Automatic annotation (TrEMBL):
Compositionally biased intervals (Polar residues): 1222-1232
Organism of derivation: Scleropages formosus
Matching InterPro entries: ConA-like_dom_sf (IPR013320), EGF (IPR000742), EGF-like_Ca-bd_dom (IPR001881), FA58C (IPR000421), Fibrinogen-like_C (IPR036056), Fibrinogen_a/b/g_C_dom (IPR002181), Galactose-bd-like_sf (IPR008979), Laminin_G (IPR001791)
Keyword Membrane carried by entry: yes
Record-annotated membrane-spanning stretches: 1171-1196
Designated name of the protein: Contactin associated protein family member 3
Basic and acidic residues composition-biased segments: 1203-1214
Predominant localisation class: membrane
Region entry Disordered, spans: 1131-1157, 1203-1239
UniProt entry tagged with the keyword Repeat: yes
Boundaries of every F5/8 type C domain copy: 1-156
Gene3D superfamilies referenced in this protein's UniProt entry, alphabetically: 2.60.120.1000, 2.60.120.200, Galactose-binding domain-like, Laminin
């Protein structure tokens, strides 16, 4: 809290009444251009201040007489001249030393100045400044004139109570009985110090409660303890330690606020606030005495290894009590040590080496028999020159520099290193570190931070004494002169307390050009800032920094980008599926760049894309009666947390979870009228008394809804209370109640009661966001949404398709700021924005037109470091943001999608899956009520039809598409899952066509594939096989005219083709795989092989548009197939082809383990019921009949073979009375080094 005399209107003129002696400047052009004439609207003297030279080292300073609150500034040029300043910065100070630069949006703020000599430019400060001295630094000025300025400063008087502590003093405040039992505690104050460590506040209460605010290495640490002991590094329950702030030992005022309500805390340092709470079992945190400046009693001080606070506190309040005012009056306060009520500040003149051309040059000392130097520095850079000199009498070059965060002393002559000493480590941490160098009589020493453990020594025969000049930080622009050579990086950071040969360097004399020479230095201030606090690295990215910038290490975070903003994972299984991925484990990030972390799920890519979220209790669990136990509680912990689960469920179109309850004399819901024995909870933590398959609130099971329970007077089978096993099972699908988190089973305590339960995984399908689209059919139409809030980080992604040449995808405006993405031509997308530094654009030109009515992907991101734009899979275009200036994007209009507020350059076409910072906009819902815009967008096959493989046909749907595998030998969502079966000798599959005369009778209904290939001039045959049998008959086609086609494998493992044909291969009768049973007119060779039958695996069998094996396995009742033997679908033909879409397999979710890749599923973690695939030989045959000519063409390829492995299942329950187990069905397939062929 600040005690102000004028609170309501803090806008008084502060400069106009000041005497001329209150004005100072770096220089003046003449007496009539002195700083005393720099008052707004005055014409005295030469009409304002002008310095002797116009350069970046000039400044105008005002002494306001006392600490004052400054709220605004106004400037003019020099009257009647061409002299004015076009931009400037301001600095402030309490003492006229140790200046602090005014910063806004984490940048040194440059104010826009004047454009002529007479107009007034007024600026209101976003953050008021409390200071006595104000310094204005011109940055740019009229190029046709000189620096010239008149100004006024606005604000009001400022009063405060200040106390100074010397490191061994403190104040103790003991509360009365009523105040100590208050529910809320609020402590607020400001502090300033040059010391990097010390205890500022320590409070104690009943039951061992304590609160300690500690300054440690320039950070504030708040320790909260509930208990009887207080080790500061304790990690026991109830002990909390929170860090805030950085570089707080800069001798500038910093605000601190601590607010406690019961066990909830708000901790604020300057502009950063952190909220936390202590142990949930603890209801209220109490303290009854508090000391400021350290721990009050000497007995208690032994509890801390830290020293007390050395510095000043201002406006110290505890619950509206002015503590310093009470101490002045000596009321309710105890004072220990020397506490003074003022703030005396030590002389501290730092210097900032800010740029690549910064250096300080000093004359060498007169003594020539030794050399010494000392300085303190702070920096974030690992490298940099601290000091160099050419030694006396050309003894060599001496460098003291930073290397990998260590201080190194090197002496070199003629390219040879004569001395190399290293001291310290990790010195680029932003803290002040001291360096002391001494050389005398051949003995050299280098010490860091006054610690002998951080020192290095060397002996040298060289005579080490400084030369004519000593350089600090760098060398003049003329590099590598004989006077100064710097083979290292320049130093960027702050220095202070510098001396050479025991002579202290007076930086004020340097600034006044009375001694030395310098370039690009900021004298009397330390301009270091912590760019990692607050950190702009998102999602757990680790922030590191150098002097000029910061970096985010996104390793293992699951995010990428300059600020770790963008997720590397897709947001749903649906998105993975439409990138051609197959069933397996994947990481999904359901809210993209939002706050939720990625989680691992199982994606089951069937016709519907199921997202499966596992939990820890999937086994069938038995419950038996036990005396004294009235209820069994089962808990279910999921692989995703509750916020992630809520987002997954809300995004899905449908979710379900299956419940099983097997019972023997154990009632479930106690229907119809009794209190339910069993209940369960979902994410809403509400008790539910309905079971799977029933409606919410019905207190029924599935059979009760269907009316087919064992006992019609009950609504659950188990409620019949029979002394025999029965069950109630069903699916829960009411999304608001999912997932199941807890179940209580009640009727298990009677003698003879037995039960078992099982809860399936949570399964969801459908992504409401992925296909959410709108069609814009008028240039003047648009959708509007609430203002987009992406102040520091903004990412926008969407898909579009159009036939138009240009159009605005989206736009959001502010007073000056804006953000826009548009199609500027048929082959260029532009992302533009303005955060106050002027318009900024990123453009991507594409090699092919974008108005081809195909879906195209656009993603734009803007953060404090860069802006980027990506179109489709083209390289990302990136542009760096300005290092200084505005960083907050401030918008206030509605967000326009598909157009602009001016209704110009509207977009014509479809926009789909529009997301802003991970939040999907519901385009369809808004389009339903907007003229000129239609919900949804047809025509997905034009972009996604390529995903349908193996003769699969793309079929349009309202939301997306599907692959019709009717005429494919494959199945699955993309027609990539092979249909395979293992044949034994004697097994046969025959696909029979209609006779020609039947075809004539049914000519009007020739739509079936049964009639499609009766008379053709060409056949296409494709299949794969694996066998150890040779020779063998593989494939046979016959006609009603006694013609046939046979594919054989000879003794050498080579294919042979026996064909008989007339001019056409007409009236096909049947296609047979396996043994042929219905033909007697065989070629002798074919007949001999047919007698042996076929033993092995056949897969993907296709004859023209007929898939006989698929028809026999999947559609036996509706297809003209005849099967002999026991034909069962197998995975014996599964392969891993080069086709990225072809390795699709649907797996069961039992016993999964392993880790998930960013895009590929975990294949090895999934159990298969087949052996591993052996060798692969691919053959493609195209047989074309042209009169009497027959041509056959095939491609042959072979790979290695592998031994097979059998899948092992879990052992069944050994109880003969328990009829349930968890063993999945399994088949073991023989593989015996078989060969596999694809034809």
């Amino acid at each position: 809290r600040n005690l102000k005399l004028s609170v309501e209107n803090c806008d008084e003129q502060l400069v106009s009444a000041l005497p001329q002696i209150s004005f100072y400047s770096s220089s003046q052009f003449s007496n009539s251009h002195s700083p005393g004439f720099a008052k707004l609207n005055r014409r005295d003297g030469a009409g304002g201040w002008s310095p002797l030279e116009s350069n970046k080292y000039q400044w105008l300073e005002i002494d306001l007489g006392e600490r004052t609150e400054i709220t605004a500034i106004a400037t003019q040029g020099r009257y009647g001249s061409s002299d004015w300043v076009t931009s400037y910065s301001i600095m402030f100070s309490d003492t006229g030393r140790n200046w602090k630069q005014y910063r806004q949006e984490d940048s040194i703020w440059a104010f826009s100045g004047n454009t002529n000599a007479d107009s007034v430019v007024h600026y209101k400060l976003l953050q008021p400044v409390i200071a006595r001295f104000l310094r204005v630094v011109p940055l740019d000025w009229n190029p046709n004139g000189r620096i010239g300025m008149r100004l006024e400063v606005y604000g009001c008087s400022y009063q405060s109570d200040v106390a100074s502590f010397d490191g061994s003093s403190s104040l103790l405040y003991r509360f009365n009985q009523n105040s100590s039992q208050t529910v809320k505690y609020v402590i607020s104050m400001k502090f300033k110090t040059l010391q990097k460590s010390g205890i500022i506040i320590h409070g104690e209460g009943p039951h061992g409660n304590s609160l300690t605010l500690e300054l440690y290495k320039g950070q504030l640490l708040l320790h909260i303890k509930t208990g009887t002991t207080f080790p500061l590094n304790s990690s026991a329950d109830g002990n909390v330690m929170v860090k805030l702030g950085s570089l707080l030992d800069d001798q500038h005022w910093h605000y601190v606020g601590i607010e406690c309500t019961n066990r909830h805390f708000n901790f604020t340092v300057d502009k950063s606030t952190q909220q936390f709470q202590i142990n949930a079992d603890f209801t209220r945190f109490e303290i009854n005495e508090i000391s400021f400046g350290g721990v009050f009693s000497r007995e208690k001080s032994g509890m801390f290894s830290k020293r007390s606070f050395h510095g000043c506190l201002e406006n110290l309040f505890y619950n509206d009590v002015n503590v310093i005012s009470l101490a002045k009056q000596k009321r309710q306060m105890s004072i220990m040590g020397n506490v003074t009520f003022g703030c005396s500040e030590p002389a501290n003149v730092p210097v900032t080496f800010a740029g690549s051309e910064s250096f300080l040059q000093l004359s060498g000392a007169q003594q020539k028999d030794s050399m010494s130097s000392s300085l303190q520095f702070r920096t974030w850079n690992k490298e940099g020159l601290l000091l160099t000199t050419e030694l006396y009498r050309d003894a060599g070059s001496l460098w003291i520099h930073l290397s990998e965060g260590k201080v190194k002393l090197q002496i070199s002559k003629l390219g040879k290193i004569l001395v190399d000493v290293t001291a310290g480590s990790g010195l680029n941490d932003g803290q002040w570190h001291s360096v002391d160098f001494n050389a005398r009589k051949g003995r050299l020493s280098l010490t860091v931070d006054k610690e002998m453990s951080s020192s290095g020594h060397a002996n040298s025969l060289l005579h080490v004494a400084s030369g004519n000049h000593v350089f600090l930080g760098g060398c003049p622009e003329r590099k590598n002169t004989q006077e100064c050579r710097n083979p290292f990086h320049v130093f960027q950071g702050c220095m202070r307390l510098m001396s050479v040969d025991n002579i202290a360097i007076d930086l004020i004399q340097v600034q006044q050009s009375l001694t030395g020479n310098y370039s690009d230095l900021q004298i009397d201030l330390c301009g270091i800032i912590d760019r990692c606090l607050p950190s702009h690295c998102e999602h757990g990215g680790k922030c590191t920094q150098s002097w000029n910038t910061f970096y985010c290490n996104c390793t293992s975070s699951g995010y990428i980008g300059a600020t770790c903003h963008s997720s590397i994972y897709e947001q749903s299984c649906e998105a993975y599926k439409h990138k051609g991925k197959t069933s397996g484990f994947y990481f999904i990030d359901v809210d993209g760049s939002g706050p939720l972390n990625p989680q691992k799920v199982y994606c089951n890519m069937t016709d519907k894309t199921w997202m499966v979220i596992q939990h820890n209790n999937t086994e069938l669990t038995k419950l038996k009666s036990s005396s004294g136990i009235t209820q069994h509680l089962a808990y279910f912990n999921y692989s995703a947390n509750m916020e992630q689960l809520r987002a997954i469920i809300n995004q899905a179109e449908y979710c379900e979870q299956e419940l099983f309850y097997h019972c023997k004399k154990s009632r479930l819901l106690n229907t119809p009228d009794g209190a339910s024995f069993t209940w369960w909870m979902g994410r809403t933590e509400e008790v539910q008394t309905y079971w799977g398959g029933a409606r919410p609130g019905s207190q029924k099971c599935s059979c009760g809804m269907q009316g087919d329970c064992l006992n019609s007077s009950h609504y659950c089978n188990c409620d019949a209370d029979k002394n025999e096993w029965t069950n109630d099972s069903g699916i829960l699908s009411f999304k608001e109640h999912l997932p199941v988190t807890k179940i209580a089973f009640g009727d298990i305590n009677r003698v003879g009661s037995e039960a078992a339960y099982k809860v399936g995984h949570l399964q969801c399908h459908g992504d409401k966001n992925f296909w959410n689209a709108a069609f814009f059919n008028k240039e003047t139409s648009y959708l509007h949404f609430p203002t987009f809030h992406g102040e520091l980080s903004a990412d926008i992604s969407f898909l579009f398709k159009t036939t138009a040449f240009l159009g605005v995808f989206l736009e959001n405006l502010g007073i000056k700021d804006f953000i826009r993405i548009e199609l500027s031509s048929s082959s260029e997308v532009v992302f533009s924005y303005d955060v106050g530094n002027g318009p900024f654009e990123v453009r991507v030109k594409t090699p092919t037109p974008l108005n081809d009515n195909q879906w195209h992907y656009v993603r734009a991101e803007r953060n404090v470091k860069e802006a980027l734009l990506q179109v489709d899979q083209l390289p990302v275009r990136t542009q760096k943001a300005p290092k200084n200036g505005h960083i907050h994007l401030q918008l206030n209009s509605q967000l326009f999608v598909g157009g602009t507020a001016s209704r110009q350059k509207g977009f014509l076409g479809c926009i789909r899956s529009l997301q802003l910072n991970g939040v999907t906009l519901d385009l369809e819902e808004r389009a339903k009520i907007t003229p000129g815009v239609k919900p949804g967008c047809p025509g997905h096959c034009s972009s996604y039809g390529r995903l349908c493989q193996n003769e699969g046909k793309c079929m349009e749907k309202y939301n997306g598409f599907s692959c019709d595998c009717t005429f494919s030998a494959f199945t699955g969502p993309f027609c990539t899952k092979e249909v395979s079966a293992y044949f034994k000798p004697g097994m046969s599959v025959a696909y029979t066509f209609k006779e020609p005369h039947e075809l004539d009778k049914n000519a009007s209904s020739q739509s079936s594939s049964i009639y499609s290939d009766l008379t053709l001039r060409g056949e296409s045959i494709a299949f794969s096989f694996r066998t150890t049998q040779a020779p063998v008959l593989l494939f046979y086609v016959s006609t009603y005219y006694q013609e046939y086609l046979a594919v054989l494998l000879n003794r050498n493992g080579k294919e042979e083709f026996n064909l008989t044909s007339d001019t056409e291969f007409s009236a096909i009768r049947s296609v047979v795989i396996g043994k042929i049973y219905d033909s007697s007119d065989f070629d002798p060779e074919v007949s001999r092989l047919n007698a042996l039958g076929f033993s092995g695996c056949l897969s993907g069998v296709q004859f023209n548009s007929i898939a006989p094996l698929k028809a026999a396995l999947l559609h036996p009742s509706s297809s003209p197939v005849t099967v002999r033997g026991q034909l069962v679908e197998s995975q014996c033909g599964a392969s891993s082809p080069s086709n990225p879409f072809a390795a699709e397999t649907t797996h069961s979710l039992s016993d999964h383990s392993g880790t998930a890749d960013t895009s590929e599923p975990i294949v090895n973690a999934i159990r298969s019921d087949s052996a591993l695939i052996g060798g692969v030989i691919a053959v493609v045959i195209f047989v074309i009949f042209c009169t009497l000519a027959i041509m056959a063409r095939f491609l042959y390829r072979r790979k290695e073979t592998f031994q097979s492995r059998e899948a092992k299942g879990p052992k069944p329950d050994e109880s003969p009375d328990f009829p349930f187990n968890n063993e999945p069905n399994s088949q073991n397939m023989q593989s015996e080094n078989q060969k596999e062929f694809l034809m």
